[in-house]
Each structure stands twice: as C-alpha cells, then as structure tokens.
Amino acid sequence: MRLLIIEDDRESADYLVKAFREVGHVAELAGDGEEGLSLADGGDYDVLVIDRMLPKRDGLSVIGSLRDKGNRTPVLILSALGQVDDRIKGLRAGGDDYLPKPYSFAELLARVEVLSRRQGGREETVYRVGDLELDRLSHRVARGEEELTLQPREFRLLEYLMKHAGQVVTRTMLLENVWDYHFDPQTNVIDVHISRLRSKIDKGFERPLLHTIRGAGYMIRDGVR
After folding, report:
1. Domain containing 63 — which CATH number?
2. Structure confidence at residue 223 as a pLDDT band (50, 70, 90)
3. Domain range holding 175?
4. What are the C-alpha distances in Å from 83 to residues 12, 22, 59?
5. Whether the Cβ atoms of residue 132 and residue 150 lie closer than 8 Å to each other
6. For the whole model, what pTM was predicted?
C-alpha cells in the first residue's frame, strides 16, 4: 500500500512511518493540515491516516475539503477524542474509520488493510504470472511446485512488478514505490536487487519471466515477445 500519514506529533509520526515500512508498505508524512491536504490532493494513495487535531488546518477540515473535491481515498482518523459523539462527527465529516488514541499498531494496520481492500474491490491478494505466484497476505512466493525464499525488499520488488505485469516499470517507479526514494541515490541498488530476484525466480526454469527492457526499465511477463 501507499499511505499518507498526516500527524503533527513527530515522535508518533516517525513511529508510524517506520512501522508501516517495516511491514512492506510505502508511507509518506505530512506534519500539518495544509501540507497534508496538498499532498493528498496531488498524490495517488491507497489510504490516508489523519490525526484529528492538527496545526494550520484540523483533520476534519482536511477530510471535508478532499470529499468536496471528489477525492474518495479511504480515510482512517486517529484522535485522542474517543467519545461516541466525536466518532460520529469524524465519520460524518467523510472519514471511513475512526481509531481513538492510544491504539495498538496491529489494530491500526488491520484497519488500514481492510480500507485498502474495500476501495473499489480491485486490490488482489494473490498475483500470478505464468507459473509464478505471489500471495501478498501470507508472503508466500512459488514457481510451479517450488517455494521461493525472498528477502523483504525482494518481495516488495516482485510484488510491484507483478502488480504491473505486462507493463514497463521504470527505475523511477521502483525507487519511489519500492524504496520510497523521491530522488536518484546514484547507486546500483536496483540492478543488484533485480539480479538477485532474477536468479531466484528464473534460474533453473525453462522460460524467463523477468525481462530488462533496454533504455526503459523492467517487465514481468509470461514468455518472450
């Protein structure tokens, strides 16, 4: 998932960003309501996690503005205000879920994943290309009858490639969506991981699935065209 966290408490925000990234998601951060609204307006996010009490513009105002503009990205509201009336106000403002503070990250993660799956009902949990299969929930990867062991970053890389199977995936797309870099680190990190991934999913099999598209990027597809 690609998440935007709008939270002004820096310690809490950094904790959330780190926790989401550790379980394989891309998380970005905004420290106030105005910055959050600007990022949410211009970004392609699966879920927004918004603190209710924010500087410059409160969370309910941010949500209301997004909904007025037709932005239907699912929103989970975090707030120290946990009374029934507070929750009702949050949901009526356009929030999809409301989680009072303090909360456990496990519950937050579960709620965010439910919101992501609910959005349009399009998010698949299992990707298949030829005889290669990746299960996003169990983190299982197999090719044919052989189960493959991938490191977390390799799994994220393969997941993104398979999500865009048959399409050219550029280096910039991989940097932003797999490494969460919004700049070119001027390293060969992508080449190294692509090489490792190729050796695991293609080596020893009759036909390759991971292809380098010269001058453009990479593609997962079944068969050579």
Report:
1. 3.40.50.2300
2. low
3. 126-220
4. 21, 31, 17
5. no
6. 0.55
